[in-house]
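Field reference: sequence -> structure
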Amino acid sequence: MQMGAEMSYTTKSWSSSLTFNSILAMAALANLVWSWLIRPTVPERENFQRNPLPEVCHLHMSDEDLAEHSVFVIGDIHGCLEELCELMKAAEEFENNILFVSVGDLVNRGPDSVGVVRKLRNMGDRVLAIRGNHDESSIREARHFRDDPNYELSEKYAWIKNLTEADFRYVNSLPYTISLPTLNSVIVHGGLLPGVSLENQKLNDMTNMRNIEINEDPFVGETLVASNKHSEGEPWVDLWAGPEHVYFGHDARRKLQRARFATGLDTGCCHGGQLTGVFINGPHSQTFLNVQSKQPIRVD
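Structure field:
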């Protein structure tokens, strides 16, 4: 186990790129105006997998909901149950009253996706989780398997056969974001576009984005567009100026990311890296803990 008790923020300097800053500011403003204009006519939201939406897409936790818990946010688990249990145990050596929060991608790739789902589900209100892109695709496959007895699951999704009805309902209920206003924090799997309300963010962007591009829109000028590709645009964390601090996953290639207003916690546990978590309040706020993966090292 390794620990970092202090977070030293590092941000990308844009001092030599005033033009880009101006474009970014205008694009964020355009996104905000466009988001406000279309709000009255927003069609029913739909995710990329065409899954039914959870009852709550954006969960808001009040100070009363937190009930003086220490909040510990955990990066992408991907079926690594043993490492999850080890990290939780390590966190409990620091605090007794912990609310664990997962940034999504509970399943796939690791050895025990069902075990992870069941572990979190059985912990009840001691844990919260959001859905990631792998959770989303697994819900799709589980729906097909449930609806069609002849549907053939690929090897990647064979574990779905062992899900109980309660397990399926749990994964299907996961929201896209968790907001903690009293901690000035938001939990999302992929990322967020600046200048767009949570209600107007595209669901697929929140589970899949890694970068942001600046595109020209014929109606509103320059706008920000999410991309899942590292080769397109800029890392979205470099463009996110708060005020909320965002905790996210989904980007194992960049490993632990510590920007001024965003913290990326996917450190590639399922690839032989680490499973990482951080306290975001309480006496150990911004203390990072990680455990070494027991999975073979591989390149995604």
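Note: The CA atoms of residues 25 and 139 lie 37 Å apart.
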